[in-house]
Amino acid sequence: MATPEGNSRRRWSGSTHRPGPREGWASVGGSPATVLGTLTIPGRPEQVSSARAFVSRTLSVHKIGTDTDHDTATLLTSEIVTNAIAHTTSGGEGGTVTIVVISITHGILVEVIDNGSAARRW
Fold this sequence. Notes:
Layout: E1 10-12, E2 33-42, H1 48-61, H2 67-87, E3 96-104, E4 107-113
Helix pairs in contact: 1-2
């Protein structure tokens, strides 16, 4: 089954190591997890709608959940992506935010990966 906009779909199980977004994903809670799609967007406020649309489209394509589940997942994704842009270096020059949609045994996991916070001097 193809993922939205040509994103890759991968399956892992057995490992509890949770590597970064470029290394792949492990099982979640001992159950196999399947990455349904990833999207990296520029860290700009006008890109939040792209993140919402991506999550909604991914859940629809893979026939996961109900309309209510889709609405909840897209709303929460929107909030977290907005926070990442507003409160991390993802919102700065050249910053990005990556959204990963993962199917797990009893639902989905949406991970939002930002560029982290700037070093603070105390």
